[in-house]
Structures
1.
Amino acid sequence: MAKRKSQSLLNGALVLLVATLLVKIIGAIYKIPLSNMIGTVGRGYYDAAYNIYLPIYTISMAGLPVAVSKMVSEQMALGHYRDARMIFKVSSKIFLITGTLGLIILLLLAYPYAALSKNLPTIPAIIAIAPSIFFCCLMSIFRGYYEGLRKMTPTAVSEVFEALGKLIFGIVLAKLTINHGMAQFNQGEPVFGKTVSNISEAYSAIFPYAAAAAALGVTLGTVLGLVYLFILYKIKGDEITREELVNSPEPEKSNTIAKNLIKFAIPVATSSLIFSITNMIDSVMVQNRLQTAIDKDLPLIKSLYGASITMGNVLDKDIKTFLFGAYSLSLDFKNLVPNLAMALGISAIPALSAAWAIKNRDEIRISVESVIRVILLISFPAGIGMAVLSEPILSLLYSRGESAAAIPITTPILAAYGFTVFIMALSTPMTNMLQAIGKPMVPLKALTVGATAKIIVNYVLVGIPSVNINGAVVGTVVCYVIILGISLYSLIKTTGVKINVVSVAIKPLICALLCGAAAFVSYMLLNRFLSFGSSDSILNSKTLATFISIGIAAVIYLISLLLVRGIAKDDILMLPKGEKIAKTLEKYRFLG
């Protein structure tokens, strides 16, 4: 029998990584004009709706795709193909039920959440995004199954389709909504049912519905991704042959499989749920504590952010949402590297589960070390570069729209996240690897401790007028440090893997520091001596200096990485045409 085609850990991760990059590029194309259209206040409504959406989404499906991927990969490694098929059938029914319940629950919680966070205008956006839970659950039927078969391409392509749908539908619908609201204002009519007397009040009335239109784009994007997966499965199926099915043992009963799926999924879902609920509580609490800080000392807040508040034409009643929206702008970048790292975590689940099922210790070691090393190879330079170029990056993307006023507030927040992003990038794949080896309770405990610490820190710091929104950064970093510490200790203890710290961490860090220094120095020099174009134009000296600095930093990082032999042969061998690449690098003694 011919060897089954499947993707290695890094090969699968590479496919997901490319898809994630495309999704992020599409997301930037989506969020940048969206933020410029609906403004920082509108982003505040949009993100507040997302914060209630995420925990319900997690309840509905977070643990099941992981459980399906793990169980299918184990059965495939053992040659139990009929069990793999049965897992798909059983999980389909479970996903259908949870998706329906998730949709209903979110609709029921829309008003209580908005009232609790003192943000009733968020309700339209919550209603618009709610159906995406149902369609995401249906997508996960196929994604979890294909990932268990170690085929990451279906997940990757569906994510791109989903992002494209969100981009097209979200931007068009938001633009139409804003145009409709402004037409009402220009004609002297009430704007979405509200009587307004000036343009600031008009935008204040429009933004909640523009945010809802953008959220509806998210729902329509999930429909597009689901259609692709459904058609793919109908055409190609799972490629398990009739001979494999005939020669495999009788599968377990559907009730037993359902129990095993749910048994494994519960701690996984609970872990994600705790984190999502923490973010929801955090969102409500941060906004309330921001209001507390503003009420305590409004003159101080205005002295800290007066120029930004004036530039953004922000009413006193919207200062809280403005600051929360400014913080939200940093999350687009803070989450970029961890989201890329998630590709490695998703790919590690079936690879590590299969190795753990057949007790292949060497494969376990290679998988664990490769995941950690590759994440640090990416997150160290990306994070440090993000930190030293935080202001020019934000100016490049937001200086010509409604969010320009928030740049001075967002810059130090983004810099702080840049220097610590490697901690966040490691946490999710670490959780995935623990789940792959049958330790889902460890991430649950780590998340509980970390989430508690985050809530406490944020409550104390955000309510201090002189600290305000900056306190949310400290709480987030403390949370991830705790999660990573507990998870890494347990992973090493359980697997017995001894990590080569010099190869995995020290070499990439040294190269990343050189990369960051190169980015900072080159930008300062170029920005000083180049001078052309106005600040309102897309192409000007500051833009060119930013791009050139990023390019110089990337070249410096790659050269230094080769010189210190920071790339491992095991990692290269798992890539497409890895043997050929490894031989070339070995010839010049560039492999560690």
2.
Amino acid sequence: MTEEASDRGRSKGGERHDAGEKRVERKSPHRPPPPALRPLRHLLWIFLAVFLAMWVWSVVAERDPWASISYTTFRTHLVENRIERVEVEGDRIRGELVEPVQTRVLDEEDPVTYERFVTHVPGFGDEGLLELLEAHGVEVETRPESLFSWWMILFYLVPFLLLLLLFFLIVRGGQAQGQRMMSIGENRARPYDRSKQQTTFADVAGQRGAKQELEELVAFLKEPSRFEELGGEIPRGFLLVGPPGTGKTLMARAVAGEAGVPFFHMSGSDFMEMLVGVGAARVRKLFEEAKKEAPGIVFIDELDSVGRKRGAGLGGGHDEREQTLNQLLSEMDGFEPNEGVVVMAATNRPDILDPALLRPGRFDRQVTMGLPTREDREAILRIHAKRKPLAPDVDLDKFAGGTPGFSGADLRNLLNEAALLAARKERTEIGSAEIEEARDKVLLGLEREGLALTEDERQLLAYHEGGHAVLAAVLPHADPLHKVTIVPRGRAMGVTQQLPERDRYVFSRDLLEDRLAVLMGGRASEELVLDTMTSGAEDDLRQASKLARRMVLSWGMSERFGRVAPVGEQEEVFLGQDIAQKREYSDSTAREVDQEIRRIVEAAYERARSTLQHHRAGLDRVAEALLEDEEISGERVRRLLGLEPEEAQASPAV
């Protein structure tokens, strides 16, 4: 199956094209806790401090300053009339001696002198102890056993503190919810902070026309008198339009850095909320704050999320999105004048925007930002290569020519992938081989390792891709062949890659017919050489049918219909909009369209088969080279076919 860089679909978001922007210094990975958790952290610290204090106090309080002696020593002192008085509390006995004595105690290794002591009654009791104390004239004092314990306090205090903490969190959560409900209609636009990050037009490569339009906006904001003397008024709205990845948001950041006036930015989805009326309230708040800081700029990214056509759905015109759009229309150009506030917006779907939003007085100018040209791609690559060590053999002009259809985001990703590949190989510089490999990775996908193929399957792949490669090399209007491989990549089992010599904006019929023949080359080679058909032609057949349909329905390249394009008015399909959509041609015409598409595809197949039959020997040599090396360059294919490079690369101007 074929892979053409000029037909690649782009679905990535905008990326900035500058590499000279100031780096933001990395901070410590430690982040402060969110405000909602700070009181919880304080409570935990207080709880730990109280727990530690109570534990220390319990340990100190339970340490008895009196000497701890054995019950036997106590009986000995009692029999020898050395005890003056005792205090009994439960099973603990404290006493005072008539005079100090020196002997060993339980908690000391060496003999100590003590006058007060403490001991405990054995668990089996001593029934004659009281009579013995009375017989020796010892004063006896009894106290009830104390039930107080610090550990009991902790046992009851911990659940209480946990319940208190839970109650605090519930109350605080309710307050936060109430605050959110009260602030749900507040403005969510964020002011641009130039002290942290500043982008200028010098950081944007290419897009000369777009920059010229926006430089005029900056000049008007800086020197309004120069325009007002001629009666000129600043446009109220600038709409940046272009495919994803072309730098619309980057251009808005450049305007923010150059203008020197307050700049508010937010996404179109920030207006939307579940509650009705919230979006309109946020629009009002946004313009109120912007008017206070006038002159200023308001930037709305992804405008299509809030600015879609009204009345396009089944639900009528009272949904939240339409109310938000109505308020936006009123603020931009309604009954009250909007002085000093310029609205910028970006979208990659201008076709679905409401017509009232695009009229003069609201978005006066639509600044188109298309895919970069070859010259622009080289400039973008040079900007992104500033902080990357490139080897001397790297020719950025060559890679700019080999990346048609790449957006600025794709080019940035290309060099980043090359840097990662060089680091994986432990290189100190990024060479041409790494950039080439990164381009194959982006265009063709990752190699599928561990895929076991039989020799018959490898032969099928070799002849299938060989058929594409031979036709791409010999047909005069086909894009030049870059390489062909039977190494499985991405979802493809093999790939034939063609790279146009230049960017194409107009496609001739000869070029399209050659492209159809190249697409059918895989299936034609299978049937010509191996007398079989495989599922490998699935994507080829789909692309060929789609291209033939556009030739018939859109470009008037059909012999049967001539210069008539039998299609109805094309509109974007929304929920309910396609129910009443009418087709402006009959069923018989639709049948003829299908027949004409089949005729064009069949003619391309017959042309591919006859061409391969004429170059059968070269096809066999290409297939053998693929079976041996798995990947060969377009130059080698041309040598195997016996073609001169100039002849194979010739392509008429379109």
3.
Amino acid sequence: MSESGRIKAEREAAAVTAGAHPPRGFLGLAPVVELEADARARLFRRNAIYVIAGAVLFATIYALLSWLKYRAFMDARFDLGNMTQAVYNTAHGHFLMTTTGDVHPVQVSRLGSHVDPILALFAIPWLVWPSPAMLLVLQSVIVATGAWPAYRLGVRFTRDPRAASLLTGAFLLYPALGFLVLNEFHPVALATPLLLWAFLYVEEDRWLWALPFLVLAAASKETVPLVLALMGAYFALRKRSWRPLILTVAALAYFGVAVWVVIPHYSGGQSVFIARYGVYGDSAGAVAKTALLHPGKTVHGLLRPSNIHYWFQLLWPFGFASLLSPLTLLISAPEALLNALSSVKFQRDIRFHYTAEEIAFIYAAAVLGLMRLWRWLGGGFREAEQAMRGQRVSRATLALLILLVALAANYFAGPLPFSLPGAANSGRDYAMRPHAAALNEAVRMIPPLATVSVNNNIGEKLSARPVVYTFPAIAGADWIALDTKHPSVLDKTNAGLYQLAFGKLVLNKDYLNVYAKDGVFVFRRVGAKQ
């Protein structure tokens, strides 16, 4: 008997055992058929091939798109250049040292702004491939590995590898995940697959396997321990055990050390990012206190239109299935609240990296939500699964619907260049413009180790050096590379101040203009090495 014949026979036997009745018309109740262990193992292996192929395709496409953006100067000194300099200096013996993007820049440790020591690990591949492109490619590959725990979680919860593989496809098509990879390079982007791996192993009660992923996730940004703390509380409830609360206590302790010890030690004060929450207080403690003691103010901030739109963009690509598992979705609350209450609008935009700590739990909630919907449709509303009278829609069919919604979401609001009518992006959005030729010529003129002052966009390619200033900061710079078509002052666009600073530079007798083409200029300090 063929494999398909065996599977069909097993299904029929299971249906008879369950005493089920045949379907009764459209969406009528059909027997709930559970795969036997051997059949499930065969389907697991077969669908694993599709999942791995999907992950490889994801990594390849997004690595290519990331490189195209980098080639076309669509990234910037902040943040790709900033990460590049930290990795470069670490590889050369100066742990996570960067140059501040201030009018009066100084050399500081990155740990004074974000506690993300995982970034230092990239100093190892830097020795082999010393290029910002390495960071972009590895980011795509590492994020793509999240497909495997996504698949494993799907199999565990749905008990159907076919449904699990379809859900994994929806995960890989999830617009926020693609934008996460394409938003230059950020260590916190690695938290998404790491959190999925950790969630899987804790769900399986394999804590020793979960430990390295928990540690690495915590090392990707100082706010990640907050979601880990909630994850511990979640599993304490889910498994009716106090042991996961150890994770909660450890994560909160790490968060406290990171925010109130590490950052102040390296910055000489509190995190500069507290200013984003200035309406709630001038310190992390004050912000938390105001948010808790003044709920009206907090709710008003949460319900602004930009937040509603942001949450809609996060939830609809999974067909809002995540809402059917609210406790799982709640694990992402710390990052969701930080984004919602921030004065920086980019934190409420799925095109940026601020979704990294939410995606894993939105996906896990969608898988569990699908199962809850499947059970409800089968007559098991608010009851155990054993109370189901049958199934109206199979788990694989529901998973296929979510996959189709995710595909539509990426088409209409995602980053993939479909180049078709109505699509959000086309190949033209990643194409290199003629202006990039002048930028490349300017970049090639700058000596490798020279101290430079750069336009924000040019800084993506000139930050692999010990010291990098951001225009209009030029004191101590031997070379200056500017792009007047992108008038940025430090990391903000400001045409008026830019033109004023550029005019002063032109009149500065300490610098010679050695290149001018298509709005791109290079200046060299008199007497500096060429």
